[in-house]
Structure formats: structure tokens, C-alpha cells
């Protein structure tokens, strides 16, 4: 069986592009961690994200770098040191993610008994709907 090439993404709307860049389970969380914590090494970033495998974190960070959302800076030291931080494009999406968090905080109580009461990253309190 011959290998099929992946089809190019069929993005017809800017919203689809945005969701492709920062959507999914981990990318928005990685962006929010970097926004809240600043520059982090890989191990520090992994500590901030519970239940993520190294393979998934590595893949998601590479995608965020490729899309210009995250900057990877390596230092010529022994042992080698690599740090990650938000690029200007990544910083620009944080208010959008905070708005999504606020919206979700208002409505998660309607669908789940165990809705999170507080988002440490966005500093949003779901119980009273105010930041």
C-alpha cells in the first residue's frame, strides 16, 4: 500500500485558522502557562501541565513554535539550556483565551456539577462571574 500525502488544511474562515493554531486540549493551556509564568524551561513547563506526556508536550510546543506563538531560545552552555516564552503573536491571543475562560466559567455550571470555581491562569471566579 502506497503512502498517501496529507491533504493541505482546508481553512475557509479565520476562526478555523485560530482554532487550528491555539485550539485543542493543550495548546491554549501551554500559552496560558507561559503568559502567567513567563519564560520557562521544558521541565518547568511540564510541571505546570498535569497529565501531559512528553511526546504530546514536545509535539504541541513544536507546533506553537512553527506557528509563531512561542519562541524557543537555546543557550550555548554545558549542560545545554533551552527556554520557551510567548512570542508577540502568542501574547496577542491571551486576551482572547481569557475571554473564552470567562465565558466558559459562566456556563460550565449549567452542564457540570464539578465546574471549576476558579481559573488561576485567568484569575476568573466562576461562582460570581467576575475577574
Describe this structure in words.
The chain has 131 residues and is an alpha+beta fold. Helices cover 49% and strands 14% of the residues. The chain contains 5 helices and 5 strands. The chain has a 3-stranded antiparallel sheet with strand order 1-3-2. A hairpin with a 5-residue loop joins strand 2 and strand 3 (81-86). The longest helix is centred in the last third of the chain and has 24 residues, at 88-111. The radius of gyration is 17 Å and the shape is globular. The model is unreliable at 124-131 (pLDDT under 50).
Topology readout:
Elements: H1 14-22, H2 27-37, E1 40-41, H3 42-48, H4 54-66, E2 70-75, E3 81-86, H5 88-111, E4 118-119, E5 124-125
Antiparallel strand pairs: 1-3, 2-3, 4-5
Which structural class best describes the helix and strand composition?
A: alpha+beta
**Taking Cα atoms only, what radius of gyration do you get, to the nearest Å?**
17 Å
Query: Total helix count?
Result: 5
**Low-confidence parts lasting 5 or more residues at pLDDT below 50?**
124-131
Strand arrangement within the widest β-sheet reads 1-3-2
Write a brief caption for the model:
The chain has 131 residues and is α+β, with helices and mostly antiparallel strands.
Q: Which key phrases capture this entry?
A:
three-stranded antiparallel beta sheet, 131 residues, alpha+beta, 5 helices, single chain, disordered C terminus
